[in-house]
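Q: what sequence does this backbone want?
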């Protein structure tokens, strides 16, 4: 490693063939011999990148958000759980997309999807904080793909980021519980659903409160598509 301007250290990694997944982390040692390994997040996941000339995928969108569910208790071995939040991703393309090691982030949390995760054409993927509760309380189609992470979404406003394995942004949404965003999702049962998967989901008018109570996790959204596409 070499010291650059601004007290930054720079390291050049070896050249690898296209498609190679490279994992790495920094090891820092002070004058007393104490060693710190700098990982990407609290789960001790290393930094990584995938060698590719075209790493950005624009076909996966944040399609549904349950940021404040009904106050319905679900009892498991850990006691009563009352938060079954989720974020649904949708592959709107006609091709399968490898989403291995993609980053899911909120303003307070960040996680990686596991390796060997492929999202087929027109398929959904659910990220939730209570997998068992969501499977039990919500109506999910058979074979739904669900990943559980210990995250929490704000009941007022939050930003959700989706990045590919190399940290390049694929999609992001900053929702609010107040107008002009749909206001019926704030603990009344419905989720935020994208009216059209090709719409600009950064705009509040592209979203609506789900017709179905609990939303439609891993299934076609329940809100009617608009008469025109919001670009």
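A:
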């Amino acid at each position: 490693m070499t010291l650059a301007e601004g007290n930054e250290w720079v390291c050049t990694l070896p050249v690898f063939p296209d498609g190679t997944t490279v994992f790495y982390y920094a090891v820092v040692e002070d004058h007393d011999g104490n060693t710190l390994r700098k990982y990407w997040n609290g789960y001790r996941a290393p930094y990584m990148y995938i060698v590719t000339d075209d790493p950005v995928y624009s076909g996966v969108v944040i399609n549904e958000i349950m940021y404040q569910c009904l106050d319905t208790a679900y009892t498991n071995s850990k006691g009563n759980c009352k938060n079954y939040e989720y974020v649904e991703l949708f592959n709107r393309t006609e091709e399968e997309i490898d989403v291995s090691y993609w980053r899911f982030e909120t303003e307070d949390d960040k996680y990686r999807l596991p390796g060997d995760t492929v999202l087929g054409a027109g398929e959904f993927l659910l990220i939730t904080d209570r997998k068992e509760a969501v499977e039990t309380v919500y109506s999910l189609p058979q074979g739904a793909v669900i990943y559980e992470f210990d995250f929490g979404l704000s009941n007022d406003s939050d930003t959700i980021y989706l990045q590919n394995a190399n940290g390049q942004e694929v999609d992001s949404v900053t929702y609010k519980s107040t107008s002009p965003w749909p206001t019926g999702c704030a603990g009344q049962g419905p989720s935020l659903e994208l009216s059209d998967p090709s719409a600009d989901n950064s705009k509040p008018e592209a979203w609506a409160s789900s017709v179905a109570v609990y939303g439609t996790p891993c299934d076609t959204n329940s809100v009617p598509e608009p008469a025109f596409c919001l670009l």
